[in-house]
Backbone:
């Protein structure tokens, strides 16, 4: 093979091989174990990745999971608010008090955006 053809061959195939290597490495990377991500996964009721077991991540996931469960319970009670008995009304009041406290804790830990001035704390339906 003449030297000119060899250089042309290398010039054409090198970018293709480099792109292939980047694609393969992107598909095999481990998940990022960031506390904010753990909080959001927990809040959504999604299990954390098996590789994410650092204490900060686990604590953020647990806070998000607890907050998400309480928000779901509050939403279910609010959906049938007119039909609640006394115990369920009391539970709804407790949830309406506890959820903003957990949101505040999440904000202190930089796991949630700060509350906007237009929106009262605890009024979000995230």
Residues:
């Amino acid at each position: 093979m003449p030297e000119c053809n060899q250089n042309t061959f290398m010039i054409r195939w090198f970018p293709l091989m480099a792109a292939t290597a980047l694609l393969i490495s992107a598909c095999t990377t481990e998940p990022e174990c960031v506390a904010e991500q753990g909080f959001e996964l927990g809040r959504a009721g999604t299990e954390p990745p098996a590789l994410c077991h650092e204490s900060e991540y686990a604590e953020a996931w647990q806070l998000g999971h607890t907050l998400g469960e309480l928000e779901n319970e509050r939403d279910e009670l609010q959906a049938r608010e007119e039909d609640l008995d006394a115990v369920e009304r009391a539970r709804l009041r407790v949830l309406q008090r506890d959820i903003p406290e957990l949101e505040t804790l999440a904000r202190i830990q930089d796991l949630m955006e700060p509350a906007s001035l237009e929106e009262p704390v605890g009024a979000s339906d995230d």
Observations:
- Residues 3 and 93 are 81 Å apart (CA to CA).
